[in-house]
Amino acid sequence: MEAEELFLGKFQAEGYRNSEGLTPTGSRDYFGQKEGFYHWDIEFETLKDGKSWLKQHSPDNPHGATPHLQIEPVKGPRLYIFWPR
């Protein structure tokens, strides 16, 4: 099953909003809350050491090497759906 299918099946009717392009602080400031959002982390950049890493992820971030969908649920912990590059 694809990440999008999982997301649509579980969260689409719950009013989740796409926070693509916003920082975590920017999402909270724009929408006035810190949950109920999702975004796709799929864009990579080349770091100074030549490693390919997700944009807006620090080199010590363990999920910066793998594309994923990140969901900030209204209740419960943050969710990630990973897939291979």
Short précis:
The protein is of the alpha+beta class.
Describe how the helices and strands are arranged.
Elements: H1 3-11, E1 17-18, H2 24-31, E2 37-41, E3 44-46, E4 52-54, E5 68-72, E6 79-82
Parallel strand pairs: 1-2
Antiparallel strand pairs: 2-5, 3-4, 5-6
Contiguous low-pLDDT stretches (5 residues minimum) are: none
Total of helices: 2
**What structural class do helix, strand and pairing data support?**
alpha+beta
Count of extended strands: 6
What characteristic shape results from the CA principal axes? Answer: globular
Strand content: 25-35%
Return the average pLDDT rounded to an integer.
87
| Overall radius of gyration | 14 Å
Distance between the termini: 16 Å
Give the % helix.
10-25%
Widest sheet: strand ordering: 1-2-5-6
> What number of domains?
1
Instruction: Give the SSE string.
Output: HEHEEEEE
Largest sheet, in brief, is: 4 strands, mixed
Describe this structure in words.
With 85 residues, this protein is α+β, with helices and mostly antiparallel strands. The chain has one domain. Helices cover 20% and strands 26% of the residues. The chain has two helices and six strands. The chain has a four-stranded mixed β-sheet with strand order 1-2-5-6, with no helix packed on it. A hairpin with a 5-residue loop joins strand 3 and strand 4. It is globular, with a radius of gyration of 14 Å. The model has no long low-confidence stretch (mean pLDDT 87).
